[in-house]
Write a structure and sequence with these properties.
Elements lengths: L5 H10 L1 H21 L7 H28 L2
Length: about 70
């Protein structure tokens, strides 16, 4: 995730509590989706799709924060 923005991600993880919260929640959801996909965790398809949508929403919010950071430090 955000392979080309690792320096910005690191800075935001250090400086921005909102980004930290979003990042950690995204990691948690990523693991839950992976577990559901391997069927380690019993989950119906609708619940899995909701998790994926929530994860994508978090990623979009983090991308917006990264872009804001990029503009502010250009």
């Amino acid at each position: 995730m955000f392979e080309y923005d690792q320096q910005i991600v690191h800075a935001l993880l250090t400086e921005n509590s909102d980004f930290q919260r979003l990042y950690h929640k995204h990691v948690e959801l990523k693991h839950r989706v992976q577990e559901a996909n391997t069927r380690s965790e019993g989950m119906d398809e609708a619940s899995l799709e909701n998790l994926k949508k929530e994860k994508l929403l978090l990623k979009d919010r983090m991308a917006a924060l990264i872009e804001d950071y990029r503009r502010a430090h250009a």
